[in-house]
Amino acid sequence: MAKMNGRILRLLFATLFYTVSMMALQAQPAKQRHYDVAAYVWPAYQPDTRFKDIGVFKDGKGEWEAIYNAKPKFSGHNQPHVPLWGYTNEADPKVMEKKIDAAASHGINVFIYDWYWYDGKPFLENGVSKGFLGARNRNKMKFYLMWANHDHNSYLDYTAVDKSKIYWRGGVDRATFNTMIAHVIKDFFSQPNYYKINGEPVFSIYELSTFIKGLGGIKEAKEALDYFTQKTKEAGFPGLHLQGVLWAAIPSGLSATPGDTSSTQNNTVLDLGLKSLTNYQWCHYVPMDRYDRWGDKAMEGWFKFSKDFTVPFFPHVSISWDPNPRYPGKLQGMVTNANPADFKRFLIAAKKYADDHPNQPKLITINAWNEWAEGSYLEPDKQHGYAYLDAVKQVFGVAKK
Length: 401
Description:
14% strand; WbsX; 401 residues; signal; TIM Barrel; 10-stranded mixed β-sheet; alpha/beta; Glycosyltransferase WbsX; transferase activity
């Protein structure tokens, strides 16, 4: 009888322990899925000395000069945009500490820096190398580079009516490319908060057509990227994650399958060894319109891209598009009625796209953190305050490192 009572007590204790454990487990909040929310950074809001080479922004504040001199071009035109934080120098680590805190506390955990290499040396690099990487809280966020390898022309000069003047060409030869990537591997990939996918540093290329043309063709471009991958491995990484910016600038190529004469952008992506695609701006593939209609049309493209390409496509959300601060003359095409509510709706759709593609990383890109001269920015302004950042936080929660 005593043995029986002992067994019953042990059974009751085991049952009680299991019940309490399950209740405690169920009481815990569901583990949130991790999303990487990456905002592009346009690093021209700083006094780069090379602005003197091209004779722009003589006030010494970088492109802020175009912003505070902007004028509305029609009644109700939302210009100028006025930053809530003032016209700050983004090459200053103290300035970037505030911006990193704001980004991370509102769900942005990756900055994608527009990065330039002209005439044998970097341009606008102090934003990332001194401002961001000099910030004491830099490890709150990851970052990676998008090589913005377009020709640099007078589009940047807000006083110039003629935008056809070329300051620097974006194409590079093989010797220049080798020098450039040695700098990237040594000074950026080596940073502990450089963004990686499966341990591989991510490096994005803006204009694949310009890259291919500069190297001399697809074969030469592939050889250069293979060399880049080899050097990345020699630096101790398992590989290199090459990402392409998807728009018309990707040329079509022939299939590698014998007898297949089809020419597609996907063939070029595969030939070059790219491992993913995303967009930089919706205006690259959707005509300007009212923001809600513009966004709905742009999101239709996500599913076409997913079908047309055999590498992962990461969904992109743009905030707006209005380049008029850069144009002293007639009104330029623009998106109208941009607002935080529709932006939030598009973010929710991007999150769902990521969830519906479980076999790829949950990366979402946003244009942009600070494209003030193109009217597409997350940074708080005098009109909306923190509303766009709040939308990111409401959808994705606080950023994880």
